[in-house]
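Tip: read the tokens left to right.
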């Protein structure tokens, strides 16, 4: 592997990102020295297309952006279109670059929707593949390029198993990412969705996720596919006798680690030529061919658990071979969800109806939209059973009663671990605690008679939390 300097984009999870009159997203570039080359997974989830598919024929591709490529859009634009290729679930479709461009017919340059501007408006695509004969899982990272450019290195064409079932997840570092078909049939062919008509999810969208998870769960029930146990962490568990060990490793459905919008965005990485603005898949071979390339990352809850919490707790994410990197083992959002489903706790942190990604127009509760999102990531729909742990009230109560004691018990462990976003918290502990406090505010948990467990946040330097007061007393939500 070749050591290089990367521009790491990590979503500042301390603020709600979204739309209408809500708070805007924050994506923060963090300079980091690392050895590039190890592949990262691409995960994809999909679903049925809703409404009239938008179609935007691909523009004629230039070889690259000018060497002085600069974002020309006003800094106020937060939305982009992503052109989905024809037959997106096929090997050819997976290897055809997605194209990032401006919304509603505006150009990439005029809108700032360029991968060279990835910190603010970068888009990322992940695919997870099921072999329906053997139950084997694999990952592939479809490439996103700026419309009007060509890839720095042509994507690898994956070798898919016969009758492969593919799920595609799309993540975004801005506010709204809209799916647009490269052909009139592209979105229908992929069974793609970015939300309900007139009410998109926001940063995320999917293709064929429902079919993928249905097939995986069916194979699990017959023993033809085995998802591993989560394992045991070094986590300290508060109890009447003091602090003991042996807690199950957290997953994306554990209140130990969730924020106001669980399981959003992907673990995909791309290589960027900062001179031409061209992108390539992140692989060992491409890293060697692109000295000085930057690594672009989608800030996500999945990356937080896979790259920070798991190592800090001695845990390991669920991985599978990357078909774009000679089978190197890698993570993906879909693999994280499979691990979470296999090891789901009684108090499961499912996407709540107050998550702004699934609320309706004007912020109204929209069970149908919540169910659409949940189905794309393999979660159960809204009903009396799931409401026992994940209704708006119970989500707030469990966030307070489970995560606050978890963070308090493990303060020393997390305080010794680097922060995902050093400008938001100076350690993993201060980052997680401040994120918990902001999630409480964003979900309006005080409306259920609860008190924010986080107070006394001390901000220093560039705005990072360096100290917090954490109240781990149990509370009960009003109904």
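Filled-in amino acids:
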């Amino acid at each position: 592997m070749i050591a290089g300097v990367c521009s790491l984009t990590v979503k500042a999870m301390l603020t709600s990102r979204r739309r209408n009159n809500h708070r805007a997203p924050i994506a923060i570039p963090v300079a980091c020295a690392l050895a590039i080359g190890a592949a990262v997974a691409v995960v994809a989830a999909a679903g049925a297309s809703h409404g009239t598919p938008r179609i935007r024929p691909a523009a004629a591709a230039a070889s690259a952006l000018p060497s002085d490529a600069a974002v020309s859009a006003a800094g106020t634009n937060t939305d982009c279109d992503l052109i989905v290729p024809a037959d997106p679930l096929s090997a050819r479709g997976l290897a055809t670059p997605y194209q990032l461009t401006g919304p509603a017919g505006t150009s990439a340059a005029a809108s700032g929707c360029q991968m060279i501007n990835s910190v603010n408006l970068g888009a990322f695509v992940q695919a997870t593949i099921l072999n329906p004969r053997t139950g084997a899982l694999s990952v592939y990272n479809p490439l996103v390029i700026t419309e009007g450019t060509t890839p720095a290195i042509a994507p690898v064409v994956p070798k898919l198993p016969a009758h492969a079932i593919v799920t595609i997840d799309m993540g975004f570092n801005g506010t709204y990412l809209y799916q647009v078909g490269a052909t009139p049939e592209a979105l229908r062919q992929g069974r793609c969705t970015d939300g309900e008509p007139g009410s998109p999810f926001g940063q995320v969208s999917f293709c064929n996720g429902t079919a993928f998870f249905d097939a995986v769960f069916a194979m699990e029930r017959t023993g033809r596919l085995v998802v591993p146990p989560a394992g045991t962490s070094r986590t300290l568990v508060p109890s009447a006798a003091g602090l003991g060990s042996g807690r199950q490793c957290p997953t994306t459905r554990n209140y130990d680690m969730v924020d106001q919008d669980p399981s959003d965005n992907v673990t995909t990485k791309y290589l960027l030529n900062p001179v031409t603005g061209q992108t390539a898949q992140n692989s060992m071979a491409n890293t060697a061919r692109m000295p000085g390339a930057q690594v672009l990352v989608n800030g996500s809850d999945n990356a937080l658990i896979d790259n920070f919490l798991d190592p800090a707790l001695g845990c390991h994410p669920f991985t599978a071979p990357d078909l774009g990197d000679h089978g190197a083992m890698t993570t993906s959002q879909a693999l994280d969800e499979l691990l979470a489903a296999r090891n789901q706790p009684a108090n499961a942190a499912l996407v709540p109806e107050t998550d702004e990604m699934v609320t309706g127009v004007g912020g109204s509760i929209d069970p149908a939209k919540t169910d659409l999102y949940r189905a794309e990531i393999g979660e159960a729909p809204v009903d009396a059973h799931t409401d026992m742990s994940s209704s708006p009230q119970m989500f707030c109560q469990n966030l307070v009663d489970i995560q606050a004691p978890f963070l308090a018990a493990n303060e020393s462990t997390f305080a010794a671990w680097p922060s995902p976003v050093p400008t938001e918290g100076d350690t993993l502990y201060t980052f997680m605690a401040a994120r918990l406090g902001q999630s409480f505010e964003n979900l309006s948990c005080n409306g259920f008679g609860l008190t924010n467990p986080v107070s006394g946040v001390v901000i220093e330097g560039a705005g990072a939390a360096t100290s917090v007061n954490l109240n781990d007393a149990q509370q009960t939500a009003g109904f």
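The two ends are 55 Å apart (CA to CA). The CA atoms of residues 79 and 176 lie 5 Å apart.
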